[in-house]
Design brief:
Elements (H helix, E strand, L loop, with lengths): L6 E5 L2 E4 L8 E16 L2 H7 L4 H11 L2 E14 L5 E2 L9 E16 L23 E7 L19 E9 L2 E2 L7 H11 L3 E5 L8 E4 L5 E4 L2 E5 L6 E4 L8 E4 L11 E7 L5 H32 L15 H24 L4 E5 L11 E4 L9 E4 L2 E4 L3
Parallel strand pairs: 5-9, 10-16
Antiparallel strand pairs: 1-2, 1-6, 3-4, 4-6, 6-7, 6-8, 10-13, 11-12, 11-14, 14-15, 16-17, 17-18, 19-20
Helix pairs in contact: 4-5
Length: 391
C-alpha cells in the first residue's frame, strides 16, 4: 500500500478506494505483540457476521464445504499520522466517506472444508482446543509466511509478513460551506452496518477519568457516555493519567453476542497485578506449598495429641519434633496463602456487557478479557482477494 493517506467510500456492504483523493498524512509502522487467531465459520449467520463484505462471494463455497476458517498472524500496524481532524473540501474527495486510519499486517490463510473444532474453553473469539479433522482441508487463499512474522523489527515488518489483515476506518470530516459531515451520524451508520450495538458505558470510580477512543486514538467521548460500537471496532477505553493513577487501556471486544441494534450496558476494569505470573505462582508454587504445609501440619498435630516424643532422630526420622513440624507447616501455608491472595487479586483487563436490567452473572452477560483491539469497518477477505475485515 502507498504511504499516502488512503480515502475510501463505505456504504452498505460495499467499499472502494477513492484514488484521486489526496489527503495529508502518512502511515508509520508500529510493531505489536505477535498475535495468532482462528475464525471458524460453519453457517450463513456466522459468515455474514464475521465476513460481511465477502459473504456473497464465499456463500457458495461455505454451502459446498460446510466450513470456512481464517487463520491470521498479526505482527504490527501501519498507523496514520499527520491527518488533521478536518480536511478541506475538494471535488476529488467528494465521494470519500472514510480514511484508513490503521492497517494490521501479517500473514493469513483462508481454508475450506475440514471439521469445526470442538469448543474447549472460553476465549475472545470462542475458539477452544478441538479434535483434529479427518476431512480434507484446502487452502483457498493465503498471503505471507507465519514463521516470518516473528522477525519483524521496531523499524519495519518482515517482507514475508506484510499482508494486509485488517483495515481500520475513521469517518472523514470536511470543512467549508455545505461540506460539513456529521461524523457521529456516520459512526452510527457504520456501527449498525458492522453489526454494532448501542453501548452505555458506566461512570468511572471516583477520582478516575476514562475516555472511549477509536483505533487511531481519537477521543470519542468521556465516560459515562453512550455510543454505537460496531463489530471489530478497534475502540478501546483509556484511563487518563490523574494523580497516582497511570494510563491504562481496556480494548473493546471484537463481537458482542447480541443482535445488531441492541442496547447494552458495559462495565470495565483495567488489568491489575500480574495475571500471568500470579497464575504460575499459584499453580506451581502455591498449591505444592499448601500440600506440603498440610502434611507437616498433620504430623505436628498427631505428635502433639498423641504425646509421641520425637526429640530424637531415630524416633521420627522424617519429620522431627512436633514444634518443628508445626513451624514448617506455618511457613508453607503462609507461602500458599500469599500466592492464593495474589492470584485472586490479579486480573486481566476486562469489559463486561449485558442487557439493561440483566444479570451480569447470567447467560445474557458476555465478557472479554485481554482481547486485542480490532477494526471497526474494514476490508474483508473474499474469494477474489481482500475486501473487508476478518471479524
Amino acid at each position: 500500500m502507498s504511504s499516502r493517506t488512503v480515502a475510501v467510500q463505505f456504504s452498505g456492504c460495499e467499499m472502494r478506494i477513492i484514488d484521486g483523493c489526496r489527503l495529508p498524512g502518512r502511515y508509520a509502522w508500529r510493531r505489536t505483540t505477535l498475535a495468532t487467531d482462528t475464525i471458524e465459520i460453519t453457517n450463513a449467520d456466522d459468515l455474514y457476521a464475521k465476513l460481511p463484505l465477502g459473504a456473497l462471494s464465499l456463500e457458495g463455497e461455505l454451502e459446498r464445504s460446510g466450513r470456512l476458517a481464517v487463520r491470521t498472524t498479526v505482527a504490527g500496524q501501519l498507523q496514520l499520522e499527520g491527518l488533521q481532524a478536518e480536511v478541506a473540501k475538494a471535488d476529488s474527495c467528494a465521494d470519500a466517506t472514510h480514511v484508513v486510519s490503521a492497517i494490521s499486517v501479517g500473514a493469513f490463510k483462508l481454508l475450506s472444508g475440514g471439521a469445526a473444532r470442538a469448543q474447549g474453553g472460553a476465549g475472545a473469539l470462542g475458539v477452544g482446543a478441538g479434535v483434529s479433522s479427518r476431512q480434507t482441508e484446502s487452502v483457498m487463499r493465503e498471503s505471507g509466511v507465519q514463521d516470518a512474522c516473528a522477525a519483524a523489527t521496531a523499524e519495519n515488518p518482515d517482507p514475508q509478513c506484510g499482508a494486509p489483515i485488517q483495515l481500520f476506518l475513521e469517518p472523514l470530516r470536511r470543512s467549508g460551506a455545505g461540506g460539513e459531515v456529521d461524523s457521529s451520524a456516520l459512526q452510527e451508520q457504520v456501527a449498525k452496518q458492522a453489526g454494532g450495538v448501542q453501548v452505555s458505558f458506566a461512570a468511572p470510580e471516583e477520582g478516575e477519568r476514562w475516555t472511549l477512543r477509536d483505533a487511531g486514538g481519537t477521543q470519542l467521548c468521556e465516560l459515562p457516555c453512550q455510543k454505537w460500537v460496531g463489530q471489530s471496532s478497534g475502540y478501546y477505553l483509556q484511563r487518563e493519567r490523574a494523580g497516582k493513577k497511570d494510563v491504562a487501556t481496556v480494548p473493546m471486544p471484537p463481537a458482542f453476542g447480541y443482535p445488531p441494534g441492541s442496547a447494552v450496558e458495559a462495565t470495565y476494569r483495567p488489568e491489575r497485578g500480574s495475571p500471568f505470573w500470579s497464575s504460575m505462582g499459584f499453580y506451581f508454587v502455591g498449591l505444592p506449598s499448601a500440600a506440603l504445609g498440610a502434611v507437616f501440619l498433620g504430623f505436628g498435630l498427631e505428635q502433639t495429641i498423641s504425646g509421641r516424643d520425637c526429640s530424637e532422630f531415630r524416633d521420627c526420622p522424617l519429620f522431627g519434633s512436633a514444634g518443628g513440624n508445626l513451624g514448617i507447616s506455618l511457613f508453607y501455608l503462609s507461602f500458599a496463602g500469599a500466592s492464593f491472595y495474589w492470584y485472586l487479586w490479579s486480573h486481566e483487563a476486562e469489559v463486561e456487557v449485558k442487557r439493561p436490567g440483566g444479570d451480569a452473572r447470567g447467560a445474557s452477560a458476555v465478557r472479554w478479557a485481554g482481547a486485542a483491539p480490532s477494526g471497526l469497518s474494514s476490508l474483508q477477505l473474499s474469494a477474489n482477494g481482500l475486501r473487508g475485515s476478518f471479524w
